[in-house]
Write a structure and sequence with these properties.
With about 210 residues, the chain is an alpha+beta fold. Helix content is about 25%, strand content about 30%. It is globular, with a radius of gyration of 16 Å.
Length: about 210
């Protein structure tokens, strides 16, 4: 299966909250963009301790979720931007229930793999002006996800995100998020995730920690 990529979005670190910087505001690029091991070039993450790096090289937040948030944010026009949630890839008709940890996709000439669900942070609330958004994401599972890059390449708007192989068939991004972030998993679930090679190492560590 394949999905059209409506926009490729990148951002630069800018003042966000006093002295705080953030690159959550991503803007569409008209030209072809390089897909490298650490993500798109150019693209920035202000706090590299919690964002970016090979296991979070590319972020996809489903465009269809923007509709859900329109009556929940003070300024719905923010959701006209394809990168409103810090997403690098603007894609429709694809969500957390349809993809799995370890799924591989051809993106332009690059090969990428789903590494983990996205854990929401306060910056989403600050940018949208909607208090309680983090809790709502955890409750609804509208989290988005990250990819690692297996083969570098180039991509531009109008290219396709084409699934070339399915990873952990029993572990959709939705299920992984509910287990690891929403805390709705069982001990057997955590044990399975702790030993899942395709899952990002920090998420495997989180699963091991739940096992005690």
């Amino acid at each position: 299966m394949k999905w059209a990529v409506e926009a490729i979005c990148t951002g630069t670190a800018r003042p966000f909250n006093g002295a705080e910087l953030s690159a959550i505001a991503k803007r569409p690029r008209e030209e072809a963009v390089q897909v490298l091991i650490e993500g798109l070039a150019p693209d920035e993450q202000a706090d590299r301790r919690v964002h970016g790096g090979p296991e979070m090289a590319l972020h996809l937040y489903p465009l269809d979720h923007h509709v859900f948030w329109r009556d929940k944010v003070p300024d719905p026009s923010l959701l006209d931007e394809p990168g409103a949630f810090g997403s690098n890839l603007a894609v429709r008709n694809l969500d957390e229930a349809l993809v799995h940890i370890g799924d591989r996709f051809r993106l332009g000439s690059a090969l990428i793999e789903i590494s983990q669900p996205r854990q929401p942070c306060w910056k989403i609330e600050h940018r949208s002006g909607a208090k309680g958004m983090v809790a709502a994401i955890i409750e609804t599972g509208r989290c988005g996800w990250y990819f690692r890059v297996l083969e570098i390449g180039e991509v531009q708007a109008g290219d396709y995100l084409e699934r070339v192989s399915v990873g952990e068939r029993n572990w959709s991004v939705s299920r992984a998020f509910k287990t690891l972030v929403a805390g709705k998993g069982s001990r057997d679930d955590w044990a399975e995730l702790a030993d899942m090679p395709a899952l990002a190492p920090k998420m495997r560590d989180r699963a091991r920690a739940k096992l005690g």
